[in-house]
Every structure is written in C-alpha cells, then in structure tokens.
Amino acid sequence: MPEIPDLTVYIEHLDDRVVGRRLSGIRIASPFLLRSVSPTVDEVAGREVVGVRRLAKQIVLELTEELFVVMHLMIAGRLRWYDEHKAIPKRNGLAAFDFDNGSLILTEASRKRRASLRLVRGPVALADLDPGGMEVCDIEFEAFFERLQSTPHTVKRALTDQRVFAGIGNAYSDEILFEARMSPFKLGRNMTTQEARKLFDACRDVLARWTDTLRSETGGKFPAKVTAFHPQMAVHGKYREPCVVCGAPVQRILKSENESNYCARCQTGGRLLADRSLSRLLKDTYPKRIEDLEGP
Question: Can you say how many angstroms the Cα of residue 88 is from the centroid of all Cα atoms in its chain?
C-alpha cells in the first residue's frame, strides 16, 4: 500500500502536471470504484485543478468551487501518467482522469477491487473522509507521546492505524521500528519518554529519508514502480535474510494479508515473536529465541 513517501512523490508529480489544468473528464471502467453519489462525474468535469494534497493515505485533487476528487489506492492501486489521452487498460484499469496535457490512469493489480474514488462537495464533506490520525512530521514530540499513551494498541498497530497516525503503513512501520530498535509488540501506553522520543525521531528520519530516495529514483519522471519492497530496506520484505546490523536472520509476523518483519536480536532482545501460522503448526516446539534457530 502506498504510504507517505510514495504518496508525497505522487503528489509532487501531479502538482507539476495538473494544477492549473482543467479536468476535462473522468472515464470509469469499474462499477466498484466510485463510492459517492453527489456531485456527479458530469458536475466535476470541466473544473480547474487548484491543488493536490494528501489526506491520510488518500490523494485529493482540489477543484474550483470547492469540489474534490478523492482517490484511495488501498493495497494494489497505482497511478500512471501519460502525456496523451490513453485508453484504460482492460486487465487492471479502473479509471482515467483526462486533462488537456495528458491522462492520469488508475489501475489495481488485484481482483478484490479495494481502491476507491469519491467525488466530494465542500470542505466539511472532505473532512468527513479524514480518519483523524496525526501527521507525525507536522506535530511536536509532546503531541506524539500523548497520542501513544492514549492508545491501547501495540506500537506497530498504533503507527499503522490511520485514526492514530496518518499515512504510515506496514512497510515503513517495519523500517521505523527497526531504526528505533523497538519490538512491534511493545504497548504505546507503557513507553517511557526516552523510548517515545527515539520512536518519534525514527519516524521522521525514515519517512524523510525514503521520500528523498524515491524522489531521486524517479527524477523528473512520473513514478512507475511504486512498491512496498525495496532492496535498500533493512527488514521489510527481508524474511530470513541477514540483518544489516547484526547478521541474524530477519523474522516475520503473519497476520491476515500482511507480513511484518523485524530483527529479533536488534529489536526484541533475541526473543522470537509468535508467528501465527508457524506457532500453531509447531506448538510446543516453536522456537522462543533467535539462538534456537541457529542450532547447537
């Protein structure tokens, strides 16, 4: 799922291409995409784009007369830009947003069709789509710490819950927790000031560093390969690969469709966190510490 670094780069490229341009029309190929009734597609067509912004994990095109186009890419949604009007791909195309200088194509590489489009009238209706999470890069440490202490969640869940903090997902939360040398299962309300400060700094450092990395990789081209997995990442997507710091094999936690990764030696004092799929299978023989995986 695209997160703050990916969405920031998307928005910067969209800002360059569509702000000041007229949205001549929206072509919708999937009946599952549009989740709103009013305003209609015809009412939105012909309006000028006056701004592009992020609302949690959603991309918002602000149009004249307080109309908004809100896209949520979810897990598999992606955007493509073409300098000419382009047909919507038959296999995974959902919609096209046409401008006089090109087309923005929304695709989704999943049959579950979770990506969504909402057309919204007025700032109040737009605010209703905000889940309420704080922007880590825009708040002071005290607000961050207070929010952590007020949640019953583990720190992994707190970072990825859009009602707590905005724009962070599974991939970058793994990298943040690794940089902070913190267990994903640590409870936010039990954190000391020093621990929370370390996490706060890690959030800002990781998000800023990866935003710069993605900017550098795309250059002047519209992002074409937005992914949650990068070779330069320390732990996310690196299950069983050696930790870049200590060399121990990176571990995983499977939950539903998400795989979270961590280094037991660097983050949990060597303790292995329960992976549901394996712990249920192995039961009492499930290893408890990283040394148990290394053999005698």
Answer: 25
Query: CA 9, CA 180: separation in Å to the nearest integer?
Result: 25
Listed in sequence order, the residues at least 6 apart from 70 whose beta carbon sits closer than 8 Å to its beta carbon are 55, 58, 59, 60, 61, 117, 118, 119, 120, 126, 129
Q: Cα separation of 285 and 296, whole Å?
A: 15
**Locate tokens 């919507």: which residue?**
88
pLDDT tens per residue, range 23-64: 999 999 998 999 999 999 999 999 999 999 999 999 999 999
Tokens of 268: 């949990």
Angle at which helix 170-179 crosses helix 193-218, to 10 degrees, equals 120
228's tokens: 């949650």
Task: Please list the alpha-helical segments (H only) found in 19-160.
Answer: 41-44, 123-127, 141-149, 155-160
Q: In this structure, which amino acid lies at residue 162?
A: Q
Does residue 113 sit in helix, strand or coil? coil
User: In terms of pTM, does the model score above 0.85?
Assistant: yes
Backbone phi, psi, residue 159, to 5° = -65, -30
